[in-house]
Amino acid sequence: TEVTEKLEEVVMIWSKQIRQVLVESEQIRREADDVGPSAELEHWKSRMSSFNSLLDEIKSSRVKKIISILQAARSKTLQQWKELDGSITIAANEAKDNVRYLYTLDKFFGPLANASPVMMEHIPSLMNTVCMIYCTSPYYNTSEHMTSLFLKITNQMINTCKTYLCEG
């Protein structure tokens, strides 16, 4: 029982740290007013990397051994652990899926940033791709995500126009 108690303490510390990561990942992002759409992709790539690292750690042999010992001891801390494991898996899947979908927009980011204000040739394809993401993504199709993406696309268009006016 002494070993079980020590292992439960370790799992409780891990759980607290994981909860902190999950809470921080859900906080509202503070970004500059003129940030472009490539920042959205970078955000999700960073988040994917963080959660994949966390998943790798959770699936390590060391952690699995501790969890199996606690399962054999019928520890009450395992219910919390399973919930956190599920939450991390969902967050990692969301980030991975969002990166996959946002990469379909990546080909538009360069032309959008470097075009003249007559960037209309890129807009229909860009909007069709955004529509496809909205219709097919299981995670990215929320009004919050879409609003953020459209705001960044608009910011990029405005920045491109400003640059064109200042250089022309």
TrEMBL record:
PANTHER family on file: CYTOPLASMIC DYNEIN 1 HEAVY CHAIN 1 (PTHR46532:SF13), MALE FERTILITY FACTOR KL5 (PTHR46532)
InterPro entries: DHC, Dynein_heavy_tail
Protein name: DYH8 protein
Any one of the GO CC terms: axonemal dynein complex
GO molecular function term, any single one: dynein intermediate chain binding
Gene source species: Dicaeum eximium
Domain of life: Eukaryota
Domain Dynein heavy chain tail, first and last residues per copy: 5-166
GO BP annotations, alphabetical order: microtubule-based movement
